[in-house]
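so ive been stuck on this for like two days lol. basically i have the seq below and the ligand is V47, smiles is in there too. i just want the complex predicted, nothing fancy, no docking runs or whatever. if the output looks off dont worry ill sanity check it later, just need somthing to start from for the group meeting slides
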Amino acid sequence: MIGISIATKWEYEATLKYFGIKDHERFGYPYGEYFLRTINETELVFYSTGVRKVNGVGGSQYMISKFNLTKVIVAGTCAGIDDNFSNLDIFVPDKAVQYDCTVKEIEPLIKQSFIVDIDLSKYGNDFYTGTIATADKAVVMWKDYLELKENKITIADTEAAAIAYICKKNEVECIIIKGISDFPTDERNSDKFESNIQQINVYLENTPKVMNKIFGEYLKRFI
Ligand SMILES: Nc1ncnc2c1ncn2[C@@H]1O[C@H](CCC(=O)c2cccc(C(=O)O)c2)[C@@H](O)[C@H]1O
C-alpha cells in the first residue's frame, strides 16, 4: 500500500472532489481522515494530517504503522522561492532540508543531519526538481524569502522534509510532489497585514488547481 500525505483541509477537500469520494468512503483517525482508492492495480491510502511538521510526521508515522506502507507520496502546495518558476509549476524535489533547527546567527541555516536526498533515477527526468525547504512557519515575510533564495532553495513548505526524514527512519521510500501556490511579496513598503491577506487569498485560489494538476498529470508516474 502507498500513502498519499496531504496537509491542509483545502488540499484534502480538493482531493475528495477530484476522486469523487462519497461520505461513507471517508474514515477518521487521530490526525484527520483518510480514504482508499486503487489506481493501476496499486492500493493507495489518501490521508490528511493537518499542517506543520508535528502533524505531517505524526499522521504519516501512524499510516506507515497501520497500513505497513511501502512508499509515502507527499502531495500538496508550496511557496515558490526560485523566481525562474511560477505559480502552478509542479516539482518533484531530489533534496529535502529543514531550515528552522539551527541558531542561524552562528550556524548554517540548513540543519545538515536532517537533509534527505531523494533518489528519483527510476522515474526519468520529465519534471522540475530541486531542493524543498521545510520549517514550522509559512514563508510570508520578504526577509525569510530572501534568506531561502540566498541558500539556493527552490520551493518551501511546512511539512515535506520532516515527513521525508521519518520515512527514511522507517526505511520507507518518500516522494514529494508539490505545486507552487504562492510567492511571498515584498511587504516592506506596504501594509504587511494587507500583503499577507493577499498571499493567503492567492494560496486559496490556487490550491485546487495545484491538486488537480498533481493528480491528473503526475501521480500515476510515481506509484
Ligand atoms: N508560503 C508558503 N510557505 C510555506 N508553506 C506553504 C506556503 N504556501 C503553501 N504552503 C503549503 O501549504 C500549506 C498551507 C499554506 C500556509 O500555511 C500559508 C500559505 C500562504 C500564506 C500563509 C500565511 O500564514 O500567511 C500560510 C502548508 O501546509 C504548506 O505545506
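The CA atoms of residues 37 and 132 lie 28 Å apart. The two ends are 10 Å apart (CA to CA).
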